[in-house]
Amino acid sequence: MSGLTKEILTLQLGHYANFVGTHWWNIQETGFEYNVATPSEIDHEVLFREGLTHKGETTFTPRLLLVDLNGSLKTLPEEGDLYDTQIEPSQLLETVKWPENKLQLEEQPRQPKNEFQSDIQDPKGLQLATTKNYSLENEVTVWSDYLYTKFHPRTVNIVKEYEHCNSERPFDSFTLGSALSETEFFEDDIFNKIRMYVEECDHFQGFQMLTDCTNGFAGLSANCLKHLRDEYDHKSVLVLPTIPSYFPDNDYQNDIEHVQSLMNDSTRVINLLLAFDCYREFGSMFVPLCTSKDGWRQPGAPREFYHTNYNHKLPYHSSSILASALDTVSLKYRQKTSNFSLIDLCADLTGCGRKAAAASVCIPFSLNSDSELIDCLDQWQGPLYKSITPRCDIGIDRIMQHLTLRGIPDSRLKKASAKQKEMAAYKCNTVKEMMEFYLSCTTYATASNVAVFEKGMPTRNPFPDIFDKRLGVNGNVAAIHRDDQTRVDSIPILAGFHSGTEIGAMLESLHAEAGKLKIGRFHKFALEKDEYEESLNNILTLRENYEDSYLV
After folding, report:
1. Is 0.85 surpassed by the pTM of this model?
2. Is the pLDDT of residue 226 over 90?
């Protein structure tokens, strides 16, 4: 058992990445255990930090630094609302010594908070906010609309040079992001905040970088990654590039919009290529994430998940699935009773220069309310999990993988029935043993590292209600359907990171798409042909590392 908390700093760069990150922090906070009699399996101090308000009140906030564009916060103050640092307009007059009759105060109209945000600001409403029925699907336009977690004042950082959703001056290219990272705002402010976070830690182990990679944040994340490698060379950096499952410009209505959509698709492909090249060089491991199958060019058809009905056009929905996978698979290096760390995860999956990996999720892990795990696995049809990495259908042979299952206690393992006793799996005495036995029987030449957690993943508000009525409150498939007023409280879920030949196919498809483009026609990137060709060759070289998949 480890007696040390190995802290991690999370960076969130970009609007969709912040959608994913908001769900991730919400899931963690709504799952906090406050009962001393049932201590948590999770060491929350790995990703959260303890602090004090100006009034001496103890706080517990994410060890997080996020960046987004101007206009993306809506009702959330840039300093957050936990430390009460805002000054009311009327108070400004008291701080200015000029005669009041010579001052004119103009206040920009404030946007109204939705019902959920109003409730969590009220101590009485906060008690009901996780169980009350809201219509967030119709109200969420930015990630702060459903933010439940409170942030430290240094967490939120807004780029003033660019406006969110500004079609006249879009922040849409790798070059724009790369240039932004060299401004005084980053050199003196953002990088200084990173240093402050790191210096607070006693046993700092590394970084998680959750980032957009199809727009200007591709270049911003790449240069931030270079900075981390220069300043913290011996620390692990897990890069999680996120790709929305839908781009509004792909729903074009006429020929002009069609041409513009094709240009936008090409720009996104170039951003992806340049970003992946930097993640390959400076990251410890990178795992592309998308709930749609294709990812580049157009994201393609949405992937289907068991007993789940989500709208892939809503970032509020698609990001919740990615966040569920990340929260689950990261439990392995947040476990109280384990010495496993971020560096161990990256080392296991990046042998032979394989810097890219794939992610998967089974949401929810479908277990009938009246059955045991042994029967569930015996009757399972098809793969246990679905890929959430674009252009990558994860195989079952000759791979390295880390899987985490949560929400199935050992009491649901088996029962003393004659039929079950005839199965070879009946000799397993824990969920972990049975999962490892199942994987050894269904995969070939594969090294599977399995972690198990008893409690399921919380899906209370503001997590979207995307599960069909066959799921009961505890996330198991029930004979009696849920009514419309009852939410699923938690779910069993399986998630993993994988390294195999399929990642090579993903990289080859990106190389093929990017290779069709003539970089000289895309002046906004300011790239020479030789520079672009070098990135293409680097991705192709990385793809070649996956040809011999025999790792174990």
Report:
1. yes
2. yes
